[in-house]
Every structure is written in structure tokens, then in C-alpha cells.
Specification:
six-stranded parallel β-sheet; 17 helices
Length: 526
């Protein structure tokens, strides 16, 4: 078996140590991507021969090569030449969670095998899309089990001393990028809601001012100021410590010093979750959202928070998040020991590189039975291709097309943000349909009378403007009301300080339901 790969794909070695692929100086968007990229091409090299090609290569020779029975064109960031008929093996990098993955020229072709990183994502796409699902293969990322491993009692005590962890405190760690949709603000809000004492939270990562938020067409230019105001200054009960990104050996020591790893991500491309798995290898129970590949961690001993899509993005119960953390905090010593060994073994088996390569090899040989297919016609956002796909798409996608000419709901976007789309579908409803493939529930649940509903981000009632203000990111978002609706909505609120809504009649049930669908409010109980 031979894989033709554009030579430009091999730029990841400029960001990694070519021998170890370790010791990244920062944790940013390129860290995990380059790690996935390196593992992808390493795996292909073990399956067959890699033939590197350059733009100056003879196009006729390349076309002849791609027609041969044992040849596959393989890509990560690049696309094949526009006039090349081939079998294409492409890594999705999580792109099937955004509109780009659904509008890509090459994705929904019989002669394209799309690589995702978890069996969970593959199953969710096949189940959710049915006949219009793309052809999928799975390559589970490998983990560095030499570095990330269970500590001895002496190593654990030494790590606690090094990071100055008090004996009586419950130490929670988050490690990853400091971006809005990783759930850092929600973690601190959840702990403040619980009122638990003697909790230390260590946040490890770096800011990425240019990181783009597809959901609202915005970036992270001011996120560091937001972080100070809505996370550090809003913290009431925790001993909160922020550290810069660290090398893997130091990160391992931090994990050894901790009692729990929390990663409540609702990031729109959160397709696997390497860092939570590294923490598990170090003996830490984890609490994660169940969005896409993170949901596979429901098989281990820890905490998983149920998710659902809204027009404002993926959401979950903050109360459940705090309850999952408190559950782990209450484990007995025996449970801690038994569970950490079970979890580490489970992750080691899930991320076994030999097993992953064998599975990919079997899928690649099966893929060779497919005849090379001509390059797709049309540009990246081809309406003809989109309409053909939409003929058999699920109802949630059909609904997004029907609503293409509707104005966006008032209060959905911060003024000046929001994607204007391409005119063929409603961008927020299309996002909701995609994310609904990967969440516990495919849509927000109906309001339950008497249940509590609170802000996913910090919210306030603005009496003078008859409006709810959400201090989220990007934000603030503002939802305004007329005199009558404001009166009904106010009657369901129990407090002005971090208000909780308890809808108890038909009118304020409808008003709260709208706020849930827009992503302002989340239920305490799902």
C-alpha cells in the first residue's frame, strides 16, 4: 500500500521535537493539531510507503499513479490538486463539528475516507446522519505512557509539596487553552454555586488572542480581560491559582499533586480530549462534558455532564457539573485506589497505538476496493453539492434550510458578531443541528414547571431597559422585553443576585424556554 502525501504536510516537525514529539513550549491550537498530524503520518508510514509530492511534480505522472490499485492520496491540511482523480484519505481534525466540515468539497464522496479520532464520534455521525453520513475511519491518538503514568505514594507526596497543596484541600486541575468555550468560567460558577469549602483550582494554559469562535464569528482579542473579571474576580470560595503552560514532566507532577481533573468543554471542535486522558493515566478521576469524543469517558469511573445544543452553542447543567465534582470528592480511599487503576487501564487500552494502526490498516485495505473518483465540481461552498446532500439530510438540517430567510432571533448575537452565512440556510440553526449529533440530547428539553434555570454565564436583570444581560464571551448579550413580558418574566425570578428562574405559569414558561433555546439559561436538573 502506498500513500501520496503533499510534502508541505510535513511542517509539523518545526513545532515538535522530531524524535520525541514532546516538550511543547505552549499549549495552543497548534499543539494538539501538530500532535495529531505527526501521529497520523507516523501511522501511515507503518501501514505502507509514503510518497512525498511537491506542487512542481509532473501532474500526468501523479494522475497515473493515483489510478493504481494500491495508491491512496492522504492529507491532513492540504487538498488534492483540483483536476486529480483519486482515493482520498483525509484527517478531519474535528471539522465535522463546524459548517466547514459539511461544506468541504471532498468530504461527502464515495472515494473519500474521513478520519476521526474516536469511535464515539464515528458512531454519532453514522447514527445521526444515516444515509448521508460520510465514510468514516478512526485513528485514536496515541498517548505518552512513558511520561503520563501512575505515581508511587512517595512521588505523589513530593508533588503535593512542590506545588504547595494543603493536606486538607481538594485539588482540582484544568490544563488546556485559555479560550472561552473550554468551560473554565463554568467550572468556577459551578463551584461557587455548590459553596464547597477547602477547594483549590489550578488552571494551566495560555491565552490565544487570535483564536476564532465559529459559533459567533468572533475572536479572543479581549479574553484575558474577561478572564480576570469573570473568572478570577468572580471566584468566591476557591483557592484559585493560574500557571503558564508547562512541559510534560512538570504537568505530570501537577497531575500527581491533584485529586481531580475537570474539563467541561463545549468547544465546537472538541472531538477527543487528549489532556483529560493524560490526567487519567496519572491517576486522576476526571469530570468532563459528554460532547462528542469526551463522551467515551462515560465508560470510566469519574463524572460526565450531559449536554444539549442551543442556538448559542452547546450547554449543560452547572448544578450537575458541581454534583459530579462533589461525588468524586466524597470517594473513600478504597474507591480512589480501585478507580484510578481501572481508569488507567481503560485509557491505555483505548489509546493502544498498535490496535489503532491495525484498525486503520484494515479500513485502508477495504478502502482500496473503491475506485478512484474524479475531483469534486464546484468551490468549497457549492450550492449544487449542498442541495444534493440536503435531499436526504435529517430534519434538523432541513429546518435550518427552511429558516434561511428568517431574521436571527433578537438577543442571539452580540451586536457586530454573528455569521451572515451563505444564504442557503440559517447559520445558527445549522450549527445547532451539527452539534445535536454529538450531544446527549439533540435539542433543549421542554421547560419543567418548578425546575430552576440559571445563567450558563453570569447574568443580571436590567430593570431600566427591561432586559436580561449575559456577561458571556463574546458579550455582553442583551435580551430585551416589552412591559408585559418583562412583568411575567420578573415574577419567575427568586433573587436579583445571580438570578434563578422558576417558571410556574404558561407565559413565563414560554419566556424561559426561549432563553434556554438561545443558550442564556440552563436547567439545574436535566
Amino acid at each position: 500500500m502506498r500513500f501520496i502525501v503533499p510534502i508541505s504536510e510535513f511542517d509539523f516537525y518545526s513545532n515538535l521535537d522530531e524524535d520525541t514529539h514532546e516538550n511543547f513550549p505552549v499549549l495552543d491550537a497548534s499543539t494538539s493539531v501538530n500532535y495529531l498530524k505527526a501521529h497520523y503520518f507516523e501511522s501511515l508510514a507503518k501501514i505502507g510507503e509514503i510518497i512525498k509530492v511537491s506542487p512542481s511534480q509532473d501532474s500526468e505522472l501523479l494522475k497515473q499513479l493515483c489510478t493504481q490499485d494500491d495508491v491512496i492520496f492522504a492529507t491532513f491540511h492540504e487538498n488534492p490538486p483540483d483536476d486529480l482523480a483519486c482515493r482520498l484519505l483525509q484527517h478531519t481534525k474535528g471539522a465535522l463539528m463546524t459548517t466547514g466540515g459539511f461544506l468541504n468539497r471532498w468530504t461527502f464522496r464515495e472515494a473519500t475516507l474521513n478520519i476521526v479520532t474516536s469511535q464515539k464520534q464515528s458512531k454519532q455521525l453514522y447514527n445521526g446522519l444515516g444515509e448521508v453520513a460520510p465514510t468514516l475511519g478512526v485513528l485514536v491518538p496515541k498517548l505518552n505512557t512513558d511520561i503520563f503514568c501512575l505515581p508511587t505514594d512517595i512521588e505523589r507526596e513530593s508533588a503535593k509539596k512542590w506545588f504547595k497543596v494543603k493536606k486538607e484541600c481538594f485539588h482540582i486541575v484544568y490544563a488546556g487553552r485559555f479560550i472561552a468555550n473550554k468551560g473554565i468560567a463554568q467550572l468556577i460558577r459551578a463551584l461557587n454555586i455548590s459553596g464547597e469549602q477547602n477547594i483549590r483550582v489550578t488552571l494551566v494554559g495560555d491565552f490565544e488572542p487570535d483564536f476564532f469562535i465559529y459559533q459567533s464569528n468572533a475572536n479572543h482579542t479581549t479574553f484575558s480581560q474577561f478572564f480576570d473579571r469573570e473568572i478570577l474576580e468572580s471566584n468566591k470560595f476557591c483557592d484559585l491559582i493560574c500557571l503558564k503552560s508547562m512541559d510534560h514532566h512538570t504537568l505530570r507532577s501537577l497531575f500527581w499533586s491533584a485529586d481531580c481533573f475537570v474539563y467541561p468543554s463545549f468547544h465546537e471542535d472538541e472531538n477527543f480530549g487528549i489532556t483529560p486522558r493524560e490526567a487519567i493515566l496519572c491517576g486522576l478521576p476526571t469530570v468532563v462534558s459528554d460532547f462528542c469524543g469526551l463522551g467515551q469517558l462515560a465508560s470510566i469511573k469519574g463524572g460526565v455532564v450531559k449536554t444539549y445544543p442551543t442556538l448559542g452553542g452547546v450547554r449543560y447543567s452547572l448544578k450537575q457539573l458541581s454534583e459530579e465534582i462533589i461525588k468524586i470528592k466524597s470517594w473513600t480511599k478504597k474507591q480512589q485506589i480501585e478507580n484510578k487503576h481501572f481508569n488507567a487501564e481503560w485509557i491505555t487500552n483505548e489509546c493502544n497505538p498498535d490496535k489503532s494502526i491495525e484498525l486503520l490498516k484494515a479500513e485502508a485495505f477495504k478502502f482500496l476496493r473503491i475506485l478512484p473518483e474524479e475531483a469534486p465540481i464546484g468551490n468549497w461552498r457549492s450550492k449544487e453539492r449542498f442541495d444534493k446532500w440536503m435531499e436526504q439530510a435529517p430534519n434538523s438540517f432541513q429546518e435550518a434550510v427552511k429558516l434561511n430567510s428568517k431574521l436571527y432571533p433578537e438577543g442571539l448575537y452580540v451586536d457586530g458578531t454573528g455569521d451572515i452565512g451563505v444564504g442557503w440556510f440559517s447559520e445558527p440553526h445549522f450549527f445547532t443541528a451539527i452539534q445535536g449529533l454529538y450531544t446527549t440530547y439533540s435539542s433543549p428539553q421542554e421547560i419543567v414547571k418548578g425546575n430552576g434555570y440559571r445563567g450558563f454565564w453570569r447574568i443580571k436583570l436590567w430593570e431600566e431597559e427591561k432586559a436580561i444581560v449575559e456577561f458571556g464571551f463574546p458579550g455582553p448579550r442583551i435580551k430585551r422585553y416589552n412591559e408585559t413580558n418583562w412583568m411575567y418574566l420578573r415574577k419567575s425570578v427568586n433573587t436579583m443576585d445571580d438570578p434563578i428562574f422558576y417558571p410556574n405559569n404558561q407565559k413565563n414558561i414560554e419566556l424561559v424556554q426561549e432563553l434556554v433555546q438561545l443558550g442564556y439559561l440552563v436547567p439545574d436538573d436535566l
